[in-house]
């Protein structure tokens, strides 16, 4: 597995199939795109307390999940600014280098090198026995997730088709259970539901042991109906998972037809580094600092 196999599909034109999805699900037409981009630029000039870049690529990141409604995109920007402000101790100036060891040496988060049968990116989070919370704590786990989303948001196909998260709890014990703190649960769910400019289509929990109930009780109070309806529990029943994610696009780890995963965050860490200009810019966005 070479890092060259990981490619960020940035600045590519949507496939004809994805264009059809964008028009049907996101109201995306050339005329509406032009009008929305123009209006959102006007709104940003009027709202002087927040700062975001105004190039087409960046504004599209906010407009697509909001179905090209400029006012909704501005509201999303405000929620992102609020989240960045409220979590400044974790996110201020965050760059991949800060979590290089977690990426390279600990197989906690992984991105499938292909897409699923619906063309969606699949993020795998290993929070079972392979996760050592003493080496990568919950704050770091969130920072890894955050950095990955900064790269994923740049892919036009992912903006339209959305993303899927697979949470793998294989061999989860008390150390992992205690590592997933209530503050982590609340922060992660606030981020996903309020401040993530990506379409999260599904979340799958697999191989969860009985002790998982302790974790679920922490997460459950923060989950709103929209997300709740997209969460699926499979345990060790991979045929249940296959009703949502086709075996033809899954690795052998989940009884799929692809080879078992033999790569980790270490292989695609260079991809995230490659978008450093975008990450540096992102770190400047949010509420305007008062003099």
From TrEMBL:
GO terms for molecular function: phosphatidylinositol bisphosphate binding. Residues 99-262 form the CRAL-TRIO domain. SUPFAM superfamilies: CRAL/TRIO domain, CRAL/TRIO N-terminal domain. It comes from the Eukaryota. One of its GO terms (cellular component) is membrane. Pfam families: CRAL_TRIO. Gene3D superfamilies: Alpha-tocopherol transfer (1.20.5.1200), CRAL-TRIO lipid binding domain (3.40.525.10), N-terminal domain of phosphatidylinositol transfer protein sec14p (1.10.8.20). Signal peptide: none annotated. This is Clavesin-1.
């Amino acid at each position: 597995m070479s890092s060259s196999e990981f490619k960020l599909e940035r600045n590519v034109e949507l496939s004809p199939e994805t264009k059809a999805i964008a028009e049907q699900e996101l109201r995306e037409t050339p005329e509406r795109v032009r009008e929305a981009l123009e209006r959102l630029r006007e709104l940003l000039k009027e709202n002087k307390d927040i700062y975001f870049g105004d190039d087409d690529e960046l504004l599209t990141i906010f407009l697509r999940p909001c179905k090209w409604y400029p006012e909704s995109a501005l509201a999303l920007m405000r929620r992102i600014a609020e989240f960045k402000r409220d979590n400044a101790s974790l996110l201020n100036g965050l760059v991949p280098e800060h979590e290089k060891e977690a990426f390279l040496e600990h197989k906690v988060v992984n991105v499938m090198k292909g897409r699923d049968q619906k063309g969606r990116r699949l993020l795998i989070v290993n929070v079972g026995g392979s996760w050592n919370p003493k080496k990568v704590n919950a704050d770091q786990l969130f920072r890894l997730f955050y950095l990955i989303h900064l790269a994923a948001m740049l892919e036009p196909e992912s903006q339209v088709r959305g993303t899927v998260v697979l949470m793998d709890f294989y061999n989860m014990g008390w150390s992992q259970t205690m590592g997933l703190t209530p503050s982590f649960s609340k922060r992660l769910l606030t981020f996903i539901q309020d401040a993530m400019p990506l379409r999260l289509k599904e979340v799958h929990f697999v191989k969860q042991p009985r002790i998982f109930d302790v974790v679920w009780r922490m997460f459950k109070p923060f989950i709103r109906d929209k997300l709740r309806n997209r969460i699926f529990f499979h345990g060790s029943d991979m045929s249940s998972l296959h009703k949502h994610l086709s075996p033809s696009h899954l690795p052998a780890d989940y009884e799929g037809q692809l080879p078992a995963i033999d790569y980790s965050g270490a292989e695609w860490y260079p991809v995230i580094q490659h978008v450093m200009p975008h990450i540096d810019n992102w770190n400047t966005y949010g509420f305007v600092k008062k003099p």
